[in-house]
Every structure is written in C-alpha cells, then in structure tokens.
Amino acid sequence: MSGFGAGFRSALQAMFADPAARAVMIGAVLLYSFFYPAAYRHQVASDLPIAVVDADHSATSRELIRHVDALLAVRVVSQPADLGQAKQQLLRGEVDGIVLIPQRLERDILRGGSGQLVLLGNGAYLSRASTILNGLAEGITGFGRQQAVRQAAFMGAPQAAPLQLVQRPLYNTREGYGSSVVPGVSELIVHQTLLLGIGVLLGSRRAQLGRRLQFDLPTLSGMALAFTVVAVCGLLYYVGFTAWAQDYPRGGNIPGMLLAVLLSALATVPFGMFIASFFDTRERAFQYVTAVSIPLFFLSNLSWPAIASPPALVALAKMLPTTAGINAIVRTQQLGARLPEIAGELLNLLLLALLYGSLVLWRLHGRRRH
Fold this sequence. Notes:
- The protein has 370 residues and is mostly helical.
- The protein has helices spanning 2-17, 19-38, 59-69, 83-91, 105-110, 126-154, 177-209, 217-245, 254-276, 283-299, 311-317, 321-334, 343-364, and strands spanning 48-54, 74-78, 97-101, 118-121.
- It has a 4-stranded mixed β-sheet with strand order 2-1-3-4, sandwiched between helices.
- Helix 3 (59-69) links the parallel strand 1 and strand 2 (74-78).
- Helix 7 (177-209) runs antiparallel to helix 8 and helix 7 (177-209) runs parallel beside helix 9.
C-alpha cells in the first residue's frame, strides 16, 4: 500500500509541478468548456442576408416578400432590379442567397396554376446555403398553402387546410447544432487533454532517464488511479456544470451516465498510458493529439452513422475508448437511455480497460521503480 500511495501522490505532484501537464489536464479542460461552445452559442443560423428580385411587381409578390422577410432563417437586405445585380451582390459576399420572383406569378396563381420561384444559394458556404434554401423552402411552401386556401375560398370550396404538420423535437428541443455536437466533443476534449498530460509526464521522464520506463505494480496502479481521478473529474465537469451553464440537454439517466463516465475513464487511462509508453520526448504527445483528434471524432459515429461507415472502420472504432465512451455518455445524458440500451458500449469499455491495462503492464511493469 505504501507503493500504491506513493505512486498516486507522485503522479498528482508531477502533474501540478509540470506547467505543460497542468495546463493541458486542468487549464485546457476549463478553457475549452467556455471557448469551444462559444462558436455555437446561437445554436441555429438566423437572419442570413438574401436578395429578392421581384419581376412580377404584384400584390402577391409583395406579400411573398413580407412573408420571406419574417422568416427566422433569412433577412431581406436588398431588392435589386434584375438577377444580374443580385448575382454581383452574391459574389461580393453582401448576400448569401437569392430569391427570384418571375413575371406573371400572380396571374398563374389566379388562373389556378402553380407559380414558380427560383432559389439560389452560395455553394462556397454549404452550411449557410443549406440553412437558407431549407428555410426558404419551408416558408414559401407555407405561403403557397395559404394562397391555395384563399383560392379555394374564392371558388367556394372549404377554407380549412386539409393537413397541418406540427413538429415537436423529443430531445434536442432547440434543434441546435451546439446541443448536437458539443456534448460529444466534450468527452473527446477530456480524452485528448488526458492523453496530452500523460504523454507529457511519461515522455519527460523517459527523456530524462534515456531508457524505457519501468514501475513496480503498486506504483503503476497508484499512477493509474491518479489519472483516473483526473479523467472522472473532467468528464463530470462537462456533463454537469458545462451542460447546465450552456443549457444543453441533460439529466436523462444520471446513474447510467455516472457508470458510463467511470468506465470511460477506466478505459481511457490505460489507453493513454500505453500510447505514452512509446513517446521518447514530451513533444510526441502534442504531435499525436494533433494528428488523431478529428479522426477520433468521426470514428465515434456521433456525426456520421455507423451503418453508413465501412465495416473495417467500424471495427477499428471499437478499439478506441472514445467511440463507446462518447456514445454511452451522450445517450444516457441527453436521451435517457437505460442500461440495457447501452450494454454494448459499457461492455466494450470494460473489455478495452482490461486489454489496455494488460498492454500497460507489458510496457511499463518491471522490477525497478523510476
């Protein structure tokens, strides 16, 4: 027990004594909890500037422009005389989309036909173009439904619309991009900062000794426990305080989430120690994290479904603690998943903890204590 306690204390002391390790394992976790969500604080894109070219100049076209300007997604900032002027504004970046109202729109509607509109978006900014075109499509569809009801009333038909669609999001009630992405990225931030800290500490020690590191079993176990405590604290900080401060969906299945946090930390720490055992200098940790951060997020299948991924990548993803950890925590935290529904992820984390724990013993366990 003396060796175990010494290993635990020495790991924590080394972490607080090393400025780089302290900055990434504590400072970066706190900084990113405010810095990273700031980019998504608006949740959904709104008031994107568009130009409307009205070639009809009718009461219907003017009403359509007022309807479009009232949409949340877009804002009418100019009404150029022709499509050429609108395109020049699009190329200069003054607007992100164009609505062209052709001639005879009102006449076609009054005759019982279907009026046609042209919607254009800037493909250089796919997210903005998608938001504009989808928002315009929904708004103009609603406007067309209103016109159809009015036309039917004019002809003596019933005025009530035959169908009304009501959408109610179950979990991400704000339908925000931040609520969808940030909770998953938070677990990845803790994973990567933990690996940075472990890599810096072990890489520095190996560079000083000039040979492969070796620790006795009690000391190695104490070190692992110290890193696990740091990992659990970081994860609880994100799923607790940060989710509350940023108003993200939370509080689903709290006992299941706590179990997922613990198993995720138990799998991440030996994984990080095994990877760090190959670092001959502390700089290798930064090189590793820089190279794998984005692939780890996409392999987690949070933004790209596993069913649409190649089987080889799906199998590779199961060897990474981030995949099962992110999915288990997000499902329990946001969706209220029960333990049987995340049993596969929890079993995966447990097996990874045993696998990488064995590899850590192979790489770092020895008679000498350094």
